[in-house]
């Protein structure tokens, strides 16, 4: 995809492709397409607006970073009523860590929208997280707080945030499930298959069976994540039994 | 005022006083009074909620700090289209500096609501800024983003934020006005008087006259601020003349 030729002309074929691509990722229709385009303009392209101000995603990144922090803060405030200010701050920095944001941007394959003079293969990992933040900034300007909250909830919190795992109390749900099965002398099977469906990006589905019975299903952007998610579901389903295992 | 005896009982005389006091400061009616009460509970009182979690303003401070940063970010994004990410970050830290937040909390006289075992005279300056942030956190939980935005706009941005002054381009509008008057051989007079009106806190009004004619009026929580604000208004009114002064 290449919008270089007509970045703010809103009726081209390229705009149509961008609109469809971005709508899939957002889960809603953008109102001001221009602000989303800006979220993918790398400074190397040296664009300027009509007043001579540089046009790239860095200012949106500043905005998105702040909004992301606020929404994660509210989530943690509600989710961890016993955590003090220091604890909440620590958990928030884990969730919005550079590494984590890069992973999010990569999973959404945001880099395919990036416009740059530098070949994409020359970018480091941070470009993924940076445009993810810029995208949040664009949503904020285009549709306001509520849409940001929903987007962050759907794309960050729901799929990735697990307080127990962040606290280091649970390292892997899969290993907990396997351990339990071995102790209980039960067979288990992770059946993994590609299941991209209507999604903008590749997805995998997993069926976890224990003693031949399907205990949990899950979908995610990698096999490992899908297995972990299915294991977590099975873990909660089995929790009563597992807690009595010792 | 003392709510110690019945902090979450919602029909007492003390609650009524708190409701009226806080409504004046907020500029709207709170829905969940309890969350505002929490914004003024100092940890020294050692309160716990029904689940044994500590009940004080520190968690709300965490939330309010994030929300304040987001709203100031959006303001700067719109207000300074030529500022890059680094510039925006620097300006934001000036606006939400500890010193500035303490001043805001002090101007609103928030400390009168604070419940603590430590005598208020023993607190340092930071208590003012901390409860200001906690109050923003309470608004966020009670009424959501829009009300936070309006509160911060009315209480922080409109009265205090001046980009030119923050940039150090203008140190004092009053001195610019005086300098101009002296060069132009004009007389000037700052007529200051108390004008608290219906406000929850003491206010001062200023009339700035040049050659006997009232050029600008302003109101603020200190004489100095009111003078500065009136000078700024006069400065913009006179700007054409002043720009030709050399």
Give an overview in words:
With 246 residues, chain A is mainly α. Chain A folds into 2 domains: 4-162, Ribonuclease iii, N-terminal Endonuclease Domain, Chain A; 173-243, 2-Layer Sandwich (Double Stranded RNA Binding Domain). Chain A has 10 helices and 5 strands. In chain A, the strands form 2 sheets. The first copy, chain A, has a 3-stranded antiparallel β-sheet with strand order 3-4-5, with helices on one face. In chain A, strands 1-2 form a two-stranded antiparallel ribbon. In chain A, a hairpin with a 5-residue loop joins strand 1 and strand 2 (54-55). In chain A, helix 3 crosses helix 4, helix 3 (58-79) packs across helix 6 and helix 6 packs antiparallel against helix 7. The termini of chain A are far apart. The interface between A and B is medium-sized, with 30 and 30 residues.
List keywords for this structure.
homodimer; mainly alpha; Ribonuclease iii, N-terminal Endonuclease Domain, Chain A; Double Stranded RNA Binding Domain; 2 domains; 3-stranded antiparallel β-sheet; 5 strands; globular
């Amino acid at each position: 995809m290449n919008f270089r030729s007509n970045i703010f002309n809103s009726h081209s074929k390229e705009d149509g492709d961008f609109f469809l691509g971005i709508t899939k990722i957002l889960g809603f229709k953008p109102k001001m397409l221009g602000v989303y385009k800006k979220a993918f303009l790398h400074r190397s392209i040296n664009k300027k607006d009509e007043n001579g101000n540089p046009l790239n995603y860095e200012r949106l990144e500043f905005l998105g970073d702040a909004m992301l922090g606020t929404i994660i803060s509210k989530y943690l405030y509600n989710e961890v009523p016993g955590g003090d200010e220091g604890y909440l701050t620590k958990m928030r920095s884990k969730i919005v860590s550079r590494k984590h944001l890069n992973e999010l941007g990569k999973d959404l394959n945001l880099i395919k929208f990036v416009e740059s003079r530098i070949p994409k293969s020359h970018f480091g990992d941070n470009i993924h997280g940076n445009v993810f933040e810029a995208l949040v900034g664009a949503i904020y300007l285009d549709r306001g707080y509520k849409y940001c909250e929903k987007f962050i909830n759907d794309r960050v919190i729901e799929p990735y945030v697990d307080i127990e795992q962040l606290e280091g109390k649970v390292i892997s749900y899969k290993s907990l499930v396997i351990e339990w099965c071995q102790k209980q002398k039960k067979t288990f099977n992770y059946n993994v298959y590609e299941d991209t469906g209507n999604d903008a990006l590749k997805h995998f589905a997993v069926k976890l069976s224990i003693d031949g019975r399907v205990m949990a299903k899950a979908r995610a952007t990698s096999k490992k994540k899908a297995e972990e998610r299915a294991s977590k579901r099975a873990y909660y389903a089995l929790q009563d039994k597992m807690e009595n295992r010792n």
